[in-house]
Structures are given as structure tokens and as C-alpha cells.
Amino acid sequence: MTVSSSEALRQTFRDVAIGMVITDVDGQILQTNEAFCRLLGYDDAVLTGRAIRSLIHADDQALDAQVLRDLLAGVRRSDVITKRFVHASGREIWGDVNFSVVRDEHGAPAFIVRMTEDVSARKQAQNERDRLFDLSLDMLSIANFDGWFTQVNPAWTRCLGWTAEELTSRPLIEFVHPDDREATLLARSRILPGQPIRGFENRYLCKDGSFRWLSWSVHPQVDTQQVIGVVRDITDLKRDEAERRLLEARVVRAQRMEGIGTLAGGIAHDLNNVLAPIMLSVDMLKEELRTEAQREVLGTIKASTERGADMLRQVLSFARGVEGERVVLSIAAVMRDVLQLVSDRLMSNVEIRMSLPENLWAFTGDSTQIQQVLLNLILNARDAMPGGGTITMSAGNAVLRAADVPTPDLPAGAYLQIEVRDTGHGIAPDHLDKIFDPFFTTKGVGEGSGLGLSTSMSIVRSHGGFLHVESALGVGTTFRLSLPASTEPAIPVVDPAPTLPQGGGECILVIDDEASIRRLLEASLQRAGYRVLLAADGAEGVARFTAHRGEIALVLTDLMMPVMDGMATIRTIRAIDPTVGIMAMSGVATAERRIEVLGQGASHFLAKPFAADTLLSAVRAAMPDVA
Prior knowledge:
The protein is α+β, with helices and mostly antiparallel strands. It has helices at 7-15, 34-40, 44-47, 61-72, 120-135, 154-160, 164-168, 181-191, 235-286, 292-319, 331-342, 367-383, 452-462, 515-527, 538-547, 566-576, 591-599, 612-622; strands spanning 19-23, 29-32, 78-86, 92-103, 109-118, 139-144, 149-152, 197-205, 211-221, 226-233, 327-329, 350-355, 362-365, 389-400, 413-422, 466-472, 476-486, 507-511, 531-535, 552-558, 581-586, 604-607.
């Protein structure tokens, strides 16, 4: 059998539009058509007798040889491969080559027919797509309708750490965060009919075990049963958005706290004006009552009034930063006072224990504020044990290293540490970083304000200390309060002086818009030996001072008054007489208010409410001749 003996084959060579070449079984070219010659840029005479192998790109020669061996061995009758030829100019020509074997009458291979279609343009476009696919910063993927990746670009490995082989070897749903799988499967069910989805978000597993947020734009190809995905890592955007929301929440809380501070200041002023006459009346009545029972009732009234004043100071200490009196204290005494205070408040099935070793260091602080911190911790511990349990209060000395303190602004050194430990249900891990936030509470409506721990943290920080919490669900919680220790001895509690300071006939001008306070101040001062002039507001007070300028030794004025407030009154009187003593009174005793008052010309400041002994001691100290 010869090539020229087939008229049909000659006709095919002459008319077909794709390149054709016929070789013998050894690969020598027997005949080519015009289309093949044009494809590679050769004349037919040049190609005839040449080895076909010399026209094939070196990297594709092995593939061509393997296909040819399979065909000659009868493994397959024909085959199509994509391979490169070398043009006469040296450039690459991509072709889809269809191999077939022509056999003789005995079935033996006679020659090989190769039909070649030029696909260089298609291959170039494909290579360009592959290059863009590989270089894209977005994560590109192709998946089948069964939910498996068939191809992913290198951006997936850069983002998640998985190799392409690892990502294509498992169903893609296995990489999705368990909490996001239901939503992901629902989205996939909408894709399969051919509906694209844009902006779908879920969390994807990284090789290191972490998760990253991904945003998907998915385009299904129903004809090829493939899903094209363009995916972006939005983890940083999510984090920024969370931080923005947190910042907005903090701003809202700060604005709310500013409002609470303003409201608390006004309420404190009014309530302290209510408490002031009660405290002054108690001291006056003490001298009139004769029986022990009467004195006991009076003592209860005084204790309740002082407790109310303490509670107001505690609210202001959180809302507006009121500073209490800082002295060197014994923590044992403070803890015993707290224990006595809460003993009748705890449920019957809660046991409270206290462990106080000897030689505890002292600390500098406000006793009322530290009591408030301990009280908050104890009542929180009680609420954590609705079925009963044990609360243990203990204290100890500790020398802390720099690594033991939470922030660089706190020094290492000697600290007094107080622990409040309970056997309650514990705090959930996702709540631990929130419990000190204002208004955060896990209690029901009306059961907690969410201010207890935030107030405690504010007080502890103002004392130069820090608060640490450890908790385990079902085991209990321990709060550890660390306060800088003092090298000075604690100031012992002493009984008040048996006699009140007395005046010597000096004239005092009292200016206050509350009639009850004016009357009680007048009575208390007159009983102590002072002469008293009264005024209901600043304007009246200035007029009285001008009329009696030569005889007034001390001006005692409230700050919040109608017509002319205390600040204007102080400035006006100080302008009239630079030497007269002026004592300002206020139910809002912030540090800023004290500084402002003293800067306006007052010589002393007295916080409402106050007892008679406090009043008379302050008056005696403020007299110009008793500096």
C-alpha cells in the first residue's frame, strides 16, 4: 500500500483547511499539504523526507513519541494532543494534533496521519488568563457543583497557608467555620440553579488553626457544571469595623457617663442639702436628750445620715471623680468594717470567712472608697452563688516585679494584696474582658446596674493599684486587689474630742438659699459662742457684708444659689475686703471644684453634709486670727 494509491487521500490533502502530514512508522515525512506548510513556514520539498520530530518543540517530543507508541501498539486507534511545533522563524506554534494510523491489508501499520489545527491564539489567551490567575491578589477559584475545588490560585496559599493540592483534596465545606456552615450550604443551594451571589461572607480555616473572614463573589457556569469564585480576605476590614463599633460604643458610654456625672452632681447637691440639716440637728439634739433609748435612736439617725452621705460620695467618685480624704490605713480595720456592714445583707446559706495574718503593711487611701470596692466584690460573689457557698476574704504582703504589674506606668515594689474568693458558678470566658465596662451586666433587668465593677476599677486605679480576676466555670471566681503599700504606720481611730471648739463672740455671715440650713447653722454657731448674720442669696449676702463690713470676721457661703451664685459672691466680697476669711460650702466636692473655689478667693472649703463638730472645727481654723 502506498500513499499515492489512495485518490481519496490525495483529494483530502488538496482541499482540507487544516495542516496535514503523513509519515512512515519511523516518523519520516512522506507528504504534507499546503496548510501544514503555511503553518510552519516551509516548502513541501523541504519537509519531505525530514523527521517529524525535528519540527516538534523539544519539551513536547516525549509526549508525541508516547502517543505514537500507544497507537502503533494498538492501545488506542487515534488520539488528540495539544503540543508545540517550531516555525521556520524559530517561534512556537501551538496545535491540536489528531493522530491516526493507516494500516495495510494485513493490519500492520503502514503510515501515520497527523491533522494539525493552529490554536496559538487560543493558547496565548489561555496563558494570559493563567498568568493573571496566578498573579491576582484576589483569591480565584474554580469548583465543581459537588462542592470541591478543582483549581485555586496561589493567593489562597498566601492567605490561608494551605497548598493547592490540600485545598482540592477535601470538600470545601470542611474548611468553613462550623458556625458558618449552615449559611454557606444555604448560599450554595441558591448558586446551583445558576444564580450568582456577591458579597457572601464566612470564616475559613487557616493551616495554623486560625480563621479568616472571606467575602465571596460566585458565578455558576451551568453548561460546564463549574463555579467561578472571586474571593477577598476581609479579616482586617472586619477587625477595623469591630474596633470602630467599639470606639463608637465607648464614645456613647463616655457621653452617657458625662450625662450621669452632671445629673449626679445636681442630685448630690440637693440630697446633701437634705442631709446637712439632719446631721446638724442630731448634734443639737444630743445635748437635749436624756435617756439612753433616746440617744440610741439619735445614734441610728446619725449613722444612717452619714451612710447616705458616704453613698453620695461613692456615686460622685465614679461619675465625676470626687476625691476622698487619703490617709494611711490598716486593711484589717477596713475589712472588719466591711464584714460588719454586710453580715446582715448576705443570704443565710452564704458563709463568709476572713483570713488576716499579722504584720500586714498599711496603705494610703480613702477608707470609704476601699470599703465600697470590697462591698461590691462581696455582693457580686453572693449573687454568683444563688444556691449558697463560701466567700473568703484574705490579705497579704507581696513584693511585685515589673512583670507582675499590668501596665508600665505602675511601679514594681511593695503591694498590699486583698483577695475576695467565692465558690460560685464562675464567669464565662467571653465575659472576662467585659466585666469592668460601665453598664455591662449579666443580671436581669432591675437586678444590676453594671456599675459595680467599673466603679471599683475606677477607685482602685485612683489609688495607684490594679484589680485582677481569675475564674473557672463551675469552680468560682477570685478578685485580687493590689494597692501600693505604705511605709508609714496606719492612723489609729480616735474618739472625737469631748468638747466642741467654741467661739469668742466673732461675727459670722452665713449665706445659703436653704432656709433650714441657715437656721441650723445659725443655731449651731450661736450655741458655740458666735454672732451670726444671715442672707438667702449672694446678692443679699454682699449687701449684708457691705453694711457690716467692719464687724464680720468670717463669711460662710454656699456655692449653688439663685440670683448670685457662690463664685460671684466670693469674688465680690474678696474685692471689697481682701483680708476677710471666706469658707465655701458645697454638696459637690470635686477636686476641680475645690481648686476653682480656692482660686476665686475662698480660704477654706467645707463639703456638705457635715456634723456640728466638723463645722465648728473648720470655722475655728478659718478665722483670720487663727491661721
